[in-house]
Each structure stands twice: as C-alpha cells, then as structure tokens.
Design goal:
By secondary structure, this protein is of the alpha/beta class. The protein has helices spanning about 20-30, 50-60, 75-85, 105-115, 155-160, 175-180, 190-200, 220-230, 230-240, 250-285, and strands at about 10-15, 40-45, 65-70, 90-95, 100, 120-130, 145-150, 170-175, 205-215. The chain is globular, with a radius of gyration of 20 Å.
Length: about 290
C-alpha cells in the first residue's frame, strides 16, 4: 500500500459569495483536516472580499496551503475556472461552501485514481442533510439525521441522462481537466454536470465503495420543485449541447445502465403495490 506521504498532491477549490460565513468556516475546516499530507485549498470569492478575514483567520500554520482569491462578480463557472487556474495539485476536487468532507475523502479518492490510471476521475458516496441541519465540527460517520445519497452506478449513457453525483463527491486528474477544458462560462447551474460529461469522454470514472462527504439538499418538496424548475433551462441547454456528441460506449456500460433502470422500475412498482395495498386497507376500514 502506498504511504499517505507518497500520494500525489491534491487541491480542493471552494467557491463562495461570502454570504454563508458559518458553513464556509466548516467547509474549510473539513478541507484542512484531510488525511493527506500534501493539500492545497483554494477559496474563490465571487464578487467581494467578505470572506477574506475568515479565510486568513483559519489559515494558521497552513497559510501557505490555503489560498484566498477574490474575483469580480462573474458567476459560478468563472469562479470555478479561477480556482482551477490557481490549483497546483495533481488531483483536484470542488467543495461547495455549505458542504463538508470527511477526513478520509481525498485519501480514499486519490488511492482510487492511482489504482485506475486510465480513469479521469473517481467518486465516492455521500450523506445528505437538510439545509437547516447542523454539522458536527469533524464529521466522521453518518449522524442520525443524515441519509445516504441516492447513488447510482457509473456509465456514460447514465451520465448523459442525469448528473450522477454532487460536486464534492468527485476527485479528478489535473491532466484530465487540461484535456477537457474548464467550466462553461455560459452555465450558471448544472455546470458540474457539463464538466463531468466532458471528462467522461476521456474515460470511465472510478467508483469507490465508501461514503466520504456530506452535502446539503432541499429541505422540503417545495424547495426541491423550485430548484428543479430553476435548473430546467440549464438542463435543456446541456442536453442540446451533447445531442450530437460522439461517445465511445463500452458494452458493459449499457449493461450497467440497463440493470440500474430495471432495478429502479422494480422499486417503483414495488412501492406502488405497497401503497395500493395500504390504501385498500384504509378503504376497507373506512367502509366498516
């Protein structure tokens, strides 16, 4: 086994608008606590310097490895590209300013990339919590109110249908980013999905059977619907962009997608049958 000190250097890019000081502080702390010696953290503030003092206050002895950048308001994709331009690690990942990483995150995914030299990226599982949930300072395992994210097996046909993972769940190679290009400046939503699609044209993503991060999700159905509606135009733009794209698809990927869709259909019909059975019981009792 490769010793942690021999693992390639990693960079984590954290984009922020400076409006979520508490969660940004937690995100940076979780990045600073990664179980990997050679770490760089790049915090990019889009449109201001509100977070500068917070970032510098957290630096401490890691000041040389914690970089703060402020750019004129330019949007999420341009902030991502500014972070990528400042990244020095061989492996790179993103962390939203309201999410967190478990201490093993970078090490686990770096080892996966080393074991799969043809993979442009690797991803692991994640926990989901509501937007108003509190995080422990050092998350290490699923708390009672955390739920596992709905993870799906990787295939390029599957990725063409939908984004398969949140942005913080992935670590990718610097060389793959340089080959595929950065984030598309015209996208202000789902920009990570577009980036993953371009990386996937290089090769298959490696998958790790571990859960290494925590992300905030819509706290209720109303917010989830509103978020989906807000993303609708970006989704249509991305689907149109890749409608004529040429992908080399392996037969195993089609089999993976087929099995995944079959399992989901089975779950759907099983759930429907259970609901139907419960409803019939309710009606019988109501009529008595």
């Amino acid at each position: 086994m490769v010793e942690p000190a021999a693992l390639p250097a990693c960079t984590l890019v954290i984009r922020t608008t400076g409006r979520r000081a508490q969660t940004l502080s937690q995100a940076i702390r979780s990045a600073l606590r990664q179980d990997i010696p050679r770490m760089q953290i790049v915090v990019v503030e889009d449109g201001g310097r509100a977070a500068e003092s917070l970032v510098k206050g957290l630096a401490g002895e890691a000041a040389q490895n914690l970089v703060y950048l402020s750019i004129p308001a330019a949007g999420r994709s341009q902030a991502a590209n500014a972070g990528l331009a400042a990244a020095t690690g061989d492996f790179i990942g993103f962390l939203d300013d309201d999410d967190m990483l478990l201490p093993s995150h970078c090490e686990v995914l770096a080892r996966a990339l080393m074991a799969a030299p043809d993979a442009p990226a690797a991803f692991a599982g994640w926990y989901e919590v509501g937007r108003d949930a509190d995080f422990p300072d050092v998350p290490s395992t699923g708390a009672q109110d955390w739920r596992l994210g709905s993870r799906r097996p990787f295939s390029r046909p599957g990725l063409l249908l939908a984004n398969l993972f949140p942005i913080q769940a992935v670590l990718f190679r610097r060389a793959a980013w340089l080959q595929a290009g950065g984030f598309s400046p015209d996208l202000e939503a789902l920009e990570d999905w577009d980036f993953w699609l371009r990386l996937s044209q290089i090769g298959l993503f490696a998958s790790v059977d571990a859960t290494t991060s925590v992300c905030r999700v819509a706290k209720d159905a109303e917010e989830a619907v509103r978020r989906t509606t807000d993303h609708a135009s970006a989704r249509q733009a991305i689907l149109a962009r890749y409608a004529d794209a040429e992908f080399t698809i392996q037969g195993s990927e089609v089999q993976v997608l087929h099995a995944d869709l079959a399992n989901r259909l089975e779950e759907f019909f099983t759930a429907g049958a259970l609901v139907g059975a419960l409803w019939r019981v309710v009606l019988r009792n109501f009529r008595r």
